[in-house]
Amino acid sequence: MGGYLGVVSKADCVADLFYGTDYHSHLGTRRGGLAVHDGTRCVRFIHDITNAQFRSKFEQDVLKLQGRMGIGVISDTDDQPLIIGSHLGTYAIVTVGRIANQAELVKQAYGLRSAHFSEMSGGEVNPTELVSLFINQGGTFAEGIQIAQQAIAGSCSMLLLTGTGVYAARDRLGRTPIILGRKDGSYAATLETCAFPNLGYETVRDLGPGEIVRLTPEGVEVVALPGHRCQICAFLWVYYGYPASTYEGVNAEDTRYRCGAALARQDRTAVDMVAGIPDSGTGHAMGYAQEKGVPFRRPFVKYTPTWSRSFMPQDQSTRDLVARMKIIPIRELIQGQRLLFCEDSIVRGTQLRETVRRLFDYGATEVHMRPACPPLIFGCKFLNFSRSKSELEIGRAHV
Asked: Of the chain's two ends, which shows fewer C-beta atoms within 10 Å, N or C?
């Protein structure tokens, strides 16, 4: 996954860009990046955030940045933003999504003969650079973005920082959101609306699927109208979207309360308490407990300062380690109790098995689990929320 923020302002935008990008840190653990246009050129910084928070890595860099337009990204894949020189002019670009036909597009790009890739980290083509190659085939930024959107199978929403404004383009089926915000003298485009309140922005609207706009300090110009078919990712509300964020006018935390309440209405299991697997299961559990009239408790607490989300590490052993070490059981709330846990979803079930074993080791008499969404039996072709290398790896967990 990943997240992005773009800002344009009549004054300096760096503070809003820095803090607003940081509000996307829950979406990625690998790279962070900022790019600002200082009036003559794009200035960029990229850092590895695998073992450090975004703010700690960039707090010295922001002192060197100055400008009225900028873009930022938290990436769980490649280095971003990239600065691209082309006949359209020099621009910086960030992308979020998954290019399912990347190998085909790379082969197509090499067919142009003059095309080449410079960001070959680990021997792989940087997908953001690949997107820029298709953008550069257009006569304008808007035309080039549409060429890229049509070529990509999967999803790819993007922000482009140019000398004349920030282009925000949502993927053509709307799987990854872009939401516009406004305050006096400034406009912003974000994936997570939780970036807006503390920076003083009000949400204006969501971009439609395939829509492209250009943000300037004077306003927002629509340069490509939205399509009519939207397939936004439902997992935003169930799991990886931040609780304080709203997509398509629907808040994530409120949705989780309603999911939990719906689970409770079809469940007759007698238990002593309801809990959530922290953090994303907490909202579901609170909704369940309120609807059922059963006490909500926290027999597990999460140690947040140093442990990342467990779905992000590449290998299963590391994911299991993260899941175990970051969640601390409280024996006094577990021993002798009939527990019902709400979880956002079950993918492989490996972490769930370990969690249930630990609960019984700490003296639980019964343990019941209620996932808020149906079993996931296939990998996602559109977003990188799962690290499974094979659909069979997921499907086997439910056989």
From this structure: C
Where do we find the tokens 């009000």? 202
| Pair 232, 240: CB distance under 8 Å | no
**Whole-angstrom distance, CA of residue 255 vs CA of residue 239:** 10
Global pTM reads 0.90
pLDDT tens per residue, range 192-210: 999 999 999 999 999 999 9
Question: Helices 316-326 and 350-361 meet at what angle, rounded to 10?
Answer: 30
Count Cβ neighbours within 10 Å for each residue of 193-207 and write b for 16 or more, e otherwise. bbbbeebebebeebb
Which tokens hold the place of 213? 């706009």
Q: What are the CA-CA distances from residue 212 to residues 72, 89, 160, 221, 334 (Å)?
A: 18, 18, 11, 9, 52
Partners of 45 in the beta sheet? 34
Order of strands across the sheet that contains 219-224: 82-84, 91-99, 154-162, 165-169, 212-216, 219-224
